Amino acid sequence: MSRNCTRLIALFLFLFVGFESSSITLRLCTAMPQSYLEKNNSFFTGGSVQEIDCIFNQLNLEYQIELSPRQSCEKMVSSGRVDGAFSIISEAGHIQNVQFSAPTSLNKWNWYTLSPFDINQTTKPIGVLKDSNEEAWLKLNHYSQIVSVDSIHQLYKLLSRQRVTAFLARETSVEKEFAHLPAEFKSVQKIFHKYTAVGCYFSLQYLLTNPTFLDKFNDRIYACQKKRLTLSQQELDVLHQIAKQIKAFASTQTILSYIQKQNEDHQKLAQDSIMKLDQQWRQEAKIGGGPLIKKVLSNPVSLYLKQVEANSKGLYQEIFIMDNKGLNVAQSKVTSDYWQGDEAKFKNTYERGNAKTFIDDIQFDQSTRMFLSQISITLVDPATQSPIGAITVGVNVEKVLIMLQ
């Protein structure tokens, strides 16, 4: 069957998922390349479809999905003819009358080439999957010779025949195809390009009539993410080296003494009092500040951490130190909560004893629009080697990968 014929059929193919309590059907469209999807009987799965299905299942909402060309999908959501468009990059700021959700998935993009090349040379012929986010990004960034095809295998063929200088693709899609490629295709060089946040654009028309919808949708994304970006061993090795630098600047006597002083002050602090302080912090954070936040952010250790972050030239995006109860001692900027004691960053460091380092998976930070991995380290009393607290640093992973190159 020709691709045009497949597209024509797909244009009228809908996924219907019904739930008892909903009487409104949301209309969604997507332009994901079919090579990113899997077909199960008459339904498309894979890609971001599973996440979308999970989210709407939890919201108990009925929805339908239309597969359509990217330009058509973008026009439909902009005009309000559909309520949302999903699996679209957050950089697609040219779409009017829409609001972007929190990312539903995170993708790692690489260049694939036979020899090193300058990615800033936008006049070179570049291969890409048709209707993909990678194609949209190339167009947004004014690449003038874009060669679009239907499959990863075709991209490799273009490269081997030197019809393109390189191709740009999602790492997971290339890895899935790699095992089935001929031996001559397997000498291709991989160059990291960027991490990309993918999510949903919802029409303002729909959001105006359903003002609580987007918050509810965003709240359910994390639990529904099937695949999260994990760090390679090479990336982990570099982050462990960065962890040594963090431990060095966090182990000054001034910092350790400040933590010990707060531990003494909080020695008799009960859990209900901790929760009240955390609630106070959250309320202050919502209104842009208050006495508790001001007290912590203005202390000398916080001022020092702000300077460390500034001197890192973008490598560190957040730094905060916790006492032996998981309460913030100092920080470079406001965190969403005051108590970290129930989170992995504290449980996998302080609660596991001295010299523990915990490196979390990659997360997209909405406020900075960056991909961060949190490095958390137990801080110890040098005299007794007993744990007294912990430090967490949000590291810009894209900068780490650029360092590797």
Quick take:
With 405 residues, this protein is α+β, with helices and mostly antiparallel strands. The chain is 37% helix and 27% strand. Strands 1, 2, 5, 6, 7, 8, 9, 10, 11 and 12 form a 10-stranded mixed β-sheet that branches. Strands 13, 14, 15, 16, 17 and 18 form a 6-stranded antiparallel β-sheet that branches.
**CATH second-level architecture of the largest domain:** 2-Layer Sandwich
- What oligomeric state best describes the polypeptide chains here? single chain
Examine the coordinates and then state which fold CATH places here, giving the name of the CATH topology of the largest domain: Beta-Lactamase
CATH class of the largest domain: Alpha Beta
Intertermini distance: 43 Å
Q: CATH homologous superfamily name of the largest domain?
A: PAS domain
Helix content: 25-40%
Walk me through the structure.
The chain has 405 residues and is of the alpha+beta class. It folds into three domains: 129 residues, D-Maltodextrin-Binding Protein, domain 2, CATH 3.40.190.10; 90 residues, Periplasmic binding protein-like II (D-Maltodextrin-Binding Protein, domain 2, 3-Layer(aba) Sandwich); 172 residues, Beta-Lactamase. It is built from 16 helices and 18 strands. The strands form three sheets. Strands 1, 2, 5, 6, 7, 8, 9, 10, 11 and 12 form a ten-stranded mixed sheet that branches. Strands 13, 14, 15, 16, 17 and 18 form a six-stranded antiparallel sheet that branches. A two-stranded antiparallel sheet has the order 3-4. Helix 4 links the parallel strand 9 and strand 10. The radius of gyration is 24 Å and the shape is globular. The relative contact order is 0.10. The N terminus is likely disordered.
